[in-house]
Amino acid sequence: MLSKGVICFLALVECIHLSEGTFNLTTAHCGNLEQDFLINQFEVWPAGSVDGSDGYCYDAMDDGYQLGQSLLTCSGCLKFICRSTPCEGRDGSLSKMFWELESVGSECCQTCDGTIVPPNKVVTTAQLEGECRVREVATCRTSHDGASGDPIGSIQVSYESDSCCPDEPASVQSWSSLGVSHLEP
Predict the structure, then answer these.
(1) Long-range CB contacts (< 8 A, 24+ apart) of 163-171?
(2) 155-167 b/e with 16+ CB inside 10 Å = b?
């Protein structure tokens, strides 16, 4: 007999294997709003030399980073690099410094709208119709690539209910209330 406090769990896996290089860097943004502001990709800073070697890029804490230095944000998922471009400014500067998103960690996940989610974080939760109040929970999980052993992020979808259990291990459609017995054939 199962108690009402037990959560029955059925996991279905949607493997969206993302290896490095397959992330959309143009739309990528951190899903954690508290970390999304650490880098302003639209701000530029002046540098006195044409190659930018004497300039700095700054984070939200006003810490300076030299040309080629990088900064990880979004729980280590987003890697930004300080770059420069020749550009004569009215202030006498010969180049401008700026942040560029260089890569997304392969252990992280990206949603269709570009949101980057760190490993072991919930991506979405949806309440499904029905008396069992089944929840569909999508979570970013990390597995290891069989050939290289590198970490690969994928979004796994699971179904949970506080009041019911699945009738069959792989069934999302058929759930029974807690306390109901089914005889095996």
Answers:
(1) 163/4, 163/131, 163/132, 163/133, 164/8, 164/131, 164/132, 164/133, 164/134, 165/2, 165/8, 166/8, 166/10, 169/10, 170/10, 170/12, 171/10
(2) bbbebbbebbbbe
d(CA 123, CA 126): 10
Q: What is the pLDDT of residues 114-162, one digit of tens each?
A: 999 999 999 999 988 888 888 899 999 998 877 777 888 989 998 888 8
User: What are the residues facing 58 on neighbouring strands?
Assistant: 64
The token pair that represents 162 in the structure block? 């506080």
- The mean of the pLDDT values for the chain is 81
Q: What is the pTM of this model?
A: 0.76
* Amino acid found at 145: D
For the CA atoms of the chain, what is the radius of gyration?
24
Q: b/e for 40-70, b at 16 or more Cβ within 10 A?
A: eeeebbbbeeeebebbbbbbeeeeebebeee
Q: The tokens of 2 are what?
A: 């199962």
- Tell me how far apart the alpha carbons of residues 67 and 55 are, in angstroms, rounded to a whole number: 7
- Confidence band, pLDDT 50/70/90 cuts, at residue 19: very low
Give the position of tokens 């309440």.
127
